[in-house]
Design goal:
alpha/beta, Rossmann fold, eight-stranded mixed sheet
């Protein structure tokens, strides 16, 4: 089985600091949609942010990723099993999973193969949900500097990021769509947390590899000048979609 390209192992330390959790209401919505709550699969778990939240309500969570570096940084939990596996070849039993979640990752998958795997492992009536985000929102000054930052790294994004930038409109699983609320992620961050987030992007990594320069260093002065207070509220509108396997 060919794995999707690993964009994050070499920036694992930035990734673990620069990523964030998702709203409690999102997980409550998914919990309410699932007929049973025995087994959840958090696919492409990264360092386990979503898996940790799923473990609050599901009896068992399998959290898979193709980066051993990220898995080694995940927080242990008695209900979570972290395992190296791809989205397209999970190793899970047929019709064993109540819920599949994919946070900020489905655009990297081989989607036809993933649909085959997902529909195989979900129980009849079970749920699959995926979500993602684009740009953080802080304040007018920071957001303007971010636009300039984005222009510098624009040519360094992997091609498949366009799937996310288009709001996942091109992704059509062979499942029944569930009408879903609108969700937004938030965090209270200092400037260094925010910069770590920018440095956790695949394009920032590739820009550094291509030019030998850290793009965020170019804008350190401008970000520092525009940052207000020790901590600021950072917001990410989420693109969220949920689906059900027919009974």
């Amino acid at each position: 089985m060919k794995y999707a390209e690993d964009h994050f192992s070499t920036i694992a330390s930035q990734y673990v600091r620069g990523r964030f959790g998702y709203p409690r209401e999102l997980y409550q919505f998914l919990f309410d949609q699932c007929p049973s709550h025995d087994f959840a699969w958090d696919c492409a778990t990264g360092t386990g942010q979503s898996a940790q939240d799923l473990a609050q309500t599901f009896h068992q969570v399998i959290a898979t990723n193709i980066s051993t570096e990220l898995l080694q940084l995940a927080t242990p939990h008695p209900r979570i099993t972290y395992r190296f596996a791809s989205a397209e070849d999970s190793g899970l039993d047929t019709e064993s999973v109540d819920l599949i979640t994919v946070a900020q990752a489905i655009h990297w998958f081989d989607l036809p193969q993933f649909w085959t795997e997902a529909t195989r492992v979900i129980k009849p009536g079970g749920v699959m949900a995926f979500w993602g985000y684009n740009w953080p929102i802080v304040n007018a000054g920071i957001d303007q500097v971010l636009e300039e930052f984005k222009s510098i790294i624009a040519e360094s994004w992997p091609e498949r990021i366009a799937i996310l930038n288009d709001g996942y409109v091109s992704i059509r699983p062979p499942l029944l769509e569930i009408p879903s609320p609108v969700f937004e992620a938030t965090a209270q961050w200092g400037l260094q947390d925010y910069l770590s987030h920018l440095n956790s992007w695949s394009a920032t990594r590739y820009y550094r590899e291509q030019t030998g320069e850290n793009a965020s260093d170019k804008f350190m002065g401008a970000f520092t000048e525009a940052w207000i207070g020790k901590h600021a509220s950072v917001q990410w509108p989420l693109v969220f979609k949920a689906f059900r396997k027919s009974i």
